[in-house]
Amino acid sequence: MKAFLTILLTLFITLCFSQETISTKMKISRKEFVETIEQYIQKEIKQRKIVGLSVAIVDEGGVLISDGFGYANKENKTKASSETLFPIASITKTFTGIAVMQLTEKGLIDLDKPIGDYIEELSLPGGEEKIITTRMLLTHHSGIQGDILYNWYLPEVSNNSLVYEQIVDLVNKEGCIFPPGKMYSYSNSGYSLLGVLIHRVSGIPYVDYVHSNILTPLDMNSAIMFAGEKTSNQIALGYDGKSSSAMPMKLGVPAGGMALSANDAAKYIQAVINIYHGNELLLKTATLHQMMTSQNDSIPIDKGFSIGLTWFLQNPIKAYTKYTSHRGELPPYHSMLVILPELKIGVCITTNTNNSSIPDEMAHDIVGKIYEFQSGETFDIKTHNEKGTFNLSKMKAYEGYYSNVFFGPMKVTARKHKLLVKSIAIPMPLHLNPNADSTFSMSVKLFGFIPLPIKMLQAMKAEFRRIENEKYLVFNIMNNLINPNIKIEPNNIPDDFFDYKGKYRVINMDNSDRIVKDVNIVKNKDFYILKYTFLGNYKFNLALQPIDKEKAIIAGIGQFMGEKIYWKTINNRIKMHWSGLIFDKE
């Protein structure tokens, strides 16, 4: 059960404020408030064993805090400062989005024109370049494989600012994992293509464009766009346990290559807020409002999830104000940006300690404190579930397997007064308890009848949906969609697949362990399952759907699913090809 809780922790804290954080009205001066925030940060550093943090906090009165805390280099006792650079990973996408919208304002990009009209060398296996639009790329609805693992982290730092343009050939080979426009599925590859788009339509390479048109106008002079860029500023080392490492070189520069200081992060937050309120320095105010408006309300599978043009709009305080955010993960670096533009509140936290929950939880705690400091108000985010009745014949309609990235094929079974979810990754079955609104509350019961008081599960719901003859099991936290899990059927598995069982190692990329390791194919009763560890933290269990005796796809739909795998036997050695990587079976 520990693994189950770890998987859901980040999602839970992103969407929920702790009641302790938001329950105390503060009648103190601005200076005293800043001191309480700094004390909170120092307390978190000590309790969570954080090596270093970069913190930028803005409210309607200006910059509250812009500083580094802890160490940029623990071995050398070099403290983090307001000018220390911390990689912000996928928060880079918000800069890429602004660049795209600048070019849209100039009439150089039509958001709903096929991307193939702009990138002529793009030629996907199914011709999807004639369907995929810039809007789909900005909202992660392109269907393009989310993470092509080959060179996800480059083996070494490169000074080639165009290195990301390799993505065109990689996408041409791997193609789409579902029809464009069908659903949200996070895609770093898609955002890397946006960098190529910016280059093609502006005539200026992506890195130079962002420096000239975003960073320089905002006086963000210390920011770098990728690890190989020259800088006189200290770049914080990353820490995973006791070991340290330098900022990795990410192939997808436009998807996650930037590093910012606290001072520059504060300038960026202020710029976004000012544009929202009429200061059109980088963009027209109407354009930013469009970016912060939901783009996917008409997509049935996305029900319960909201995204703008780049910005995530999943709002834990939606009854009070507009909420926009973006996370970033480049292990061991993790970051979170939250902006409440209407209230002129913004927080950006980046840590060099390999715990993805830290910046999410701290950013939301601090936003809650600022909200309370400004308004003196508290709010109740608790959910109340009215129990429904258990109808065995109705419950049996939900039986079967549903794909999930973390849990593998989840088996739903109806038994008398129980609806259970089992998988190889969950030590004890999840009990789905019917609510009056057709959703299900979730619980775990020791020995099958003693409920365990797991607070996180109390905030979760499950829901079964039928969309265009496809069945889904959807998990929600606070009525916010986590991910849709499509129903899958066991396949007739060719006998040859038995030879594919076992452990694999990457043979065509150095430094591959930072991306994917512990690769293993196992078999349970009904499925072969691809198991691996992604980015050192995430344990994946993916069901395989055979195509023939040498080919399969990862069963399911969405990020990390629908990807192609095939095997070849060369000199009596089995080679597995997947996501640009070549593996040797041990």
How would you describe what is shown here?
The protein contains 14 helices and 27 strands. With 586 residues, it is an alpha+beta fold. It folds into three domains: 32-375, 3-Layer(aba) Sandwich (Beta-lactamase); 392-487, Lipocalin (Beta Barrel); 495-585. Strands 11-12-13-14-15-17-18-19 form an eight-stranded antiparallel beta barrel. Helix 3 (30-48) runs antiparallel to helix 12 and helix 4 runs parallel beside helix 7 (188-202). Residues 1-26 have low confidence and may be disordered.
Write the layout of secondary structure elements.
Layout: H1 2-15, H2 19-22, H3 30-48, E1 52-59, E2 62-73, E3 78-79, E4 86-87, H4 92-105, H5 134-138, H6 167-174, H7 188-202, H8 206-215, E5 238-240, E6 243-245, H9 253-256, E7 259-260, H10 262-276, H11 285-291, E8 324-330, E9 333-340, E10 345-351, H12 357-375, H13 392-396, E11 400-402, E12 410-415, E13 418-423, E14 426-434, E15 440-446, E16 450-451, H14 455-458, E17 460-467, E18 470-477, E19 480-488, E20 502-506, E21 516-523, E22 528-534, E23 538-546, E24 551-554, E25 564-570, E26 573-578, E27 581-585
Antiparallel strand pairs: 1-2, 1-10, 2-3, 4-7, 5-6, 8-9, 9-10, 11-12, 11-19, 12-13, 13-14, 14-15, 15-16, 15-17, 17-18, 18-19, 20-21, 20-27, 21-22, 22-23, 23-24, 24-25, 25-26, 26-27
Helix pairs in contact: 1-12, 3-12, 4-7, 4-8
